[in-house]
Write the structure tokens for this entry.
Amino acid sequence: MFDAHLHIIDPRFPAPGDAGYRPDPFTVADYLDRVADLSVTGGAVVAGSFSGPGQDHLVAALRELGPSFVGVAQLPPDTSDSHLRDLHSAGVRALRLNLYRGGTDDLDALVQLGRRAAELLNWPTEIYVDSRDLRALAPRIAPLPRIGVDHVGLSREGLPALLALVGSGARVKATGFGRGDLDVPAALRAVAEVNPAALMAGTDLPSTRAPRPFEPADLDLIAEALSPEQAAAAFGANARDFYGLPASGRR
């Protein structure tokens, strides 16, 4: 399995928090212990809103996890091209826009950053958003050449807007099932019907702020909701393709 969405919270690095929230530590060792029985061979380490604009924690996690893991950075709009290249050299392979916890005020500037990162380094942009907002946001994010949406878009009501985005090429993280109000199996099948290459499975560990954190049974749910071919792709090939990794999963 390529774990398409995880967080590392390393107490060696300052975390300014978000709206007063500061998560408990969750180190690389903690993560590897939690997934020891899940056949994880690589993954995407995602910077959270609580980490602030600095990416030293992300670079350190990638160094420790090795070349089968990539990073997803959360960056300010004025990030320089040279810094983007430095992060790429360290293993970062995507940009994240957290619109669920704010960030829409700078959205147009962040979209421009996403376009620069795509042109320079072929990075996709991941968006954490309630899919109920996608219809209104779609014209503003349309300039991004490749996007992924976190946690199946969270919302049952917003699923049609998410499916429309999938129809135009967006990928979807099959993660965070305890965060929204979706009928998860039905939503996964609907996404796969539009594009069987869209779904990317992950743990969302340590499930910060989730009403119901990740359980290994969530992976069983994916396998049961999809055809064997769709599930196999969701557990590996789809995410490796999204992050520009070869079939071996090593950057």
